[in-house]
Amino acid sequence: MTNRTFEDKPATRERVPLLLGLVGPSGSGKTYSALRLATGIQKAVGGDIYFVDTEARRALHYADRFRFRHVAFGMPFGPLDYLAAIEHCVKKGAKTVIVDSMSHEHEGPGGVLEMHEAECERLMKQWKTSREKVQMTAWAKPKQDRRRLINTVLQMPCNFIFCFRAKEKLKIIPGKQPENQGWMPIAGDEFVFEMTMNALLYPGSNGVPVWRTDEPGERKMTKLPEQFRALFSNSESLSEDLGEKMATWALGTAKDGLFSELRDAIAMADEGGLAHVAARVEEIPKTQALPGGQYKALKALIQDRRAELARLISEQEAAANGEVPADQEPHSRRGDEGEENAAQ
């Protein structure tokens, strides 16, 4: 019998990072769409956008349209090389990281497939045996490195957009015609399945994702979670607005208690107390403790409360000087006399 103890508390939807996958062949709009989504995410969470670029610096084509930090990434493309590039971004303070393309980790120079091949050659020589007998064992090292990459990314307090190249695949069935799977990501399944959302972009789609398809492979890899379905009810390009809305959802609801606390404090604050609350509110963009919309609402409440306090102080000063506010002046003597004459 274990001596472990546990605690329970009311469930609240807490802040979680976004992991967005964009899957498509060349010309489908992955890079541009990723930058648009990242810009929207930035509006909600703040911080800098970092772009890990494996595609011969092609992200710089958009440097005059979007603001981001560029990280050139050349081969080798092993999982731990990707991890080093990502850790560089996060240590620099990135709140949103784009990786384009993630597919090199799978089939690029130094990627998982080449790592497996190298392990096969090493084990064949070491064990003096055939390839067939080392095939499975040779997957251990590359899969271990990939799992380390995935597990580390999942623990990072950062939003990610991963772009995956895609190619059309056929499923070979013995004795039957090959079965078309459609456009499939060039990546390990275990990485793709970790995404919060996977959007499929067809060639020439201009960034408009496809969520319904007849191809079995495409149905398997696309993922649109329930909380985002209303956002994608219309066929529209991936945009800054969609990125901001997804990021706002990802901020969670546990922070609502802070918003209520600050809102009530503003309503009851005197001049000195309001200055203290205003200083707390000014820290919000730095800590991303609240969504941008709630921050703006608190700023407006502070302005209203300042105006209200100024009016109250003005009334108090007028009363101390024996002045009567215009809206509280009694009827003039002349008016009173007129009413008396009318009564007679």
Question: What do you see in this structure?
Answer:
The chain is α/β, with parallel strands linked by helices. It has 2 domains: 19-250, Rossmann fold (3-Layer(aba) Sandwich), CATH 3.40.50; 256-325. 45% of the residues lie in helices and 14% in strands. Strands 1, 2, 3, 4, 5, 6 and 7 form a 7-stranded mixed β-sheet that branches. It is elongated. Mean pLDDT is 89; it is low at 331-344.
Topology:
Elements: E1 19-24, H1 30-45, E2 48-53, E3 69-72, H2 79-91, E4 94-100, H3 104-107, H4 112-127, H5 140-154, E5 159-171, E6 179-185, H6 189-192, E7 197-200, H7 216-221, H8 240-250, H9 256-268, H10 271-282, H11 284-287, H12 292-320, H13 333-343
Parallel strand pairs: 1-5, 1-7, 2-3, 2-4, 4-5
Antiparallel strand pairs: 5-6
Secondary-structure class:
alpha/beta
CATH class of the largest domain: Alpha Beta
Q: Enumerate how many helices there are, as a single number.
A: 13
Looking at the structure, the CATH topology of the largest domain is: Rossmann fold
The rounded distance between the terminal residues' Cα atoms is: 100 Å
CATH architecture of the largest domain: 3-Layer(aba) Sandwich
Biggest sheet statistics: 7 strands, mixed
Low confidence ranges: 331-344
- The percent of residues in helical segments reads 40-55%
The gyration radius over C-alpha positions equals 30 Å
Question: What's the order of the H and E elements?
Answer: EHEEHEHHHEEHEHHHHHHH
Strand-residue fraction?
A: 5-15%
Domains, number: 2
Q: What kind of oligomer do you see? A: single chain
The shape, in one word, is: elongated
